[in-house]
């Protein structure tokens, strides 16, 4: 039986480290960092850890409706989404995720673009 990427890379503990690093990078970015100015970081890191886990075939998941509702009040453009996607990909690579697997995870992220971009 083939392992999911979530299992292959070590589960929630590894995804949690990746997501914490991802948010350090996002907060430093002038384009997407301001989206998190008024956000309770512990809560969003928890949600994002579950979301990235689901992108990797892990047990947590979000429905399309949930994703749309979470982002409905934000004005996220394609440029913001592209920046976030690029930072996510580089963070995955910097944590030892192979290029092929990082591409698969970001492709899964890309599939949700229409739910997030205004």
Which SSEs are present, and which pair or pack?
Layout: H1 5-8, H2 12-28, H3 41-55, H4 64-71, H5 78-94, H6 99-110, H7 113-116
Helix pairs in contact: 2-3, 2-5, 5-6
Tally the beta strands: 0
Main sheet characteristics: none
Radius of gyration: 14 Å
Terminal CA distance reads: 39 Å
Report the portion of residues in β strands.
Answer: under 5%
Helicity level: 55-70%
Structural class comes to mainly alpha
Instruction: Tell me the series of helices and strands, N- to C-terminal.
Output: HHHHHHH
Count of DSSP H/I helices: 7
Morphology call: globular
**Mean of all residue-level pLDDT scores:** 93
Low-confidence stretches: none
Characterization of the model:
With 118 residues, the chain is mostly helical. The protein contains seven helices and no strands. The chain has helices at residues 5-8, 12-28, 41-55, 64-71, 78-94, 99-110, 113-116. Helix 2 (12-28) crosses helix 5 (78-94) and helix 5 (78-94) packs antiparallel against helix 6 (99-110). The longest helix has 17 residues, at 12-28. It is globular and about 40 Å long. The protein starts with a helix and ends with a helix. The relative contact order is 0.17. The model has no long low-confidence stretch (mean pLDDT 93).
Short description, anyone?
With 118 residues, this protein is an all-alpha fold. It is built from 7 helices and no strands.
